[in-house]
């Protein structure tokens, strides 16, 4: 006996609504059905759900995930295509990480900006230093800017 949608939702953290949506989008061809037609998840299906969640949360469109799953269901004849899916998606994720790092740098800069302004009693201190954040700026050149992991 397997698991129901509700049980899988509780165990995986993926909502029942999302599981049903994934099924309608063709992302769950590996999930069996019981005698009355309800989804009947197996323990091995959780690995698939983990991969789907990873790809979805890292920005892969459902259409591409579906293609990857279809290729997986075809077996070894599609190993090259599946490898290419992950190599291409890795590039996308690396670009997103770089973008997020730029956002984090700006946030760290603004934290430093306000901390030093509070310490000196005015934000005008930064006007004297012509202190302006620019994207791609080397934050190691900003005086007294310390990131949490460096403290």
From TrEMBL:
Coiled coil feature spans: none
Alphabetized InterPro entries for the sequence: DNA-bd_dom_put_sf, MerR-type_HTH_dom, MerR_fam
SUPFAM superfamilies: Putative DNA-binding domain
HTH merR-type domain span: 1-71
UniProt cross-references to Pfam families, sorted A to Z: MerR_1
GO MF term (any one): DNA binding
Keywords: DNA-binding
Name the record gives this protein: MerR family transcriptional regulator
Source organism of this protein record: Paenibacillus agri
Lineage, top ranks: Bacteria, Bacillati, Bacillota, Bacilli, Bacillales
């Amino acid at each position: 006996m397997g698991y129901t949608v509700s049980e899988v939702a509780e165990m995986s953290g993926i909502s029942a609504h999302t599981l049903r949506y994934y099924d309608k989008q063709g992302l769950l061809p590996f999930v069996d059905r019981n005698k009355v037609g309800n989804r009947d998840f197996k323990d091995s299906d959780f690995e698939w759900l983990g991969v789907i969640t990873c790809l979805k949360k890292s920005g892969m469109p459902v259409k591409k995930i579906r293609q990857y799953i279809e290729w997986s269901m075809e077996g070894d004849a599609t190993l090259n295509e599946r490898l290419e899916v992950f190599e291409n998606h890795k590039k996308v994720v690396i670009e997103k990480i770089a973008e997020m790092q730029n956002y984090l740098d700006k946030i760290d800069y603004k934290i430093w900006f306000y901390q030093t302004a509070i310490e000196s009693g005015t934000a005008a201190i930064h006007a004297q230093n012509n202190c302006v954040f620019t994207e791609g700026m080397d934050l190691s050149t900003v005086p007294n800017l310390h990131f949490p992991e460096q403290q």
